[in-house]
Design goal:
Layout (H helix, E strand, L loop, with lengths): L2 E5 L2 E4 L4 E8 L7 E7 L5 E8 L6 E2 L7 E6 L4 E6 L8 E8 L8 E2 L3 E6 L1
Parallel strand pairs: 2-11
Antiparallel strand pairs: 1-3, 3-8, 4-5, 4-9, 5-6, 7-8, 9-10, 9-11
């Protein structure tokens, strides 16, 4: 059974940076599309970024283009989200998710890691 475990969240001041990690265990997700989503308090979950294990250009939600970078380390079965120039509105619970390239819905989810950006 595949398990996704996020880490790296915390409290940071506006303008600061954080790097989130998502470690996949259970089996190698060599053909999966991996993504990060953010859920702010009282709001729906939003797409942040996605990357394919097999390569290709990553995709970003408009709110995070130019500030966040998604990357992967195939040897560690880990996906990262580098978050720069953080804003208070970036605050929320960040989830790692995965899906095969043949479907549109993500069916693997981590437990989330909290990011809080103070002004």
């Amino acid at each position: 059974q595949v398990r996704l475990v996020e880490s790296g969240g915390g409290l940071v001041q506006a303008g600061g940076s954080l790097r989130l990690s998502c470690a996949a265990s259970g089996r190698t997700l060599s053909n999966y599309v991996m993504a990060w989503f953010r859920q702010a308090p009282g709001k729906e979950r939003e797409f942040v970024a996605a990357i394919s294990w097999s390569g290709g250009s990553p995709n970003y939600g408009d709110s995070w283009k130019g500030r966040f970078t998604i990357s992967k380390d195939n040897t560690k079965n880990t996906v990262y989200l580098q978050m720069n120039s953080l804003k208070p509105e970036d605050t929320g619970l960040y989830y790692c998710a995965g899906r095969t390239p043949y479907v549109t819905n993500y069916d693997l989810w981590g437990q989330g890691t909290q990011v809080t950006v103070s002004s």
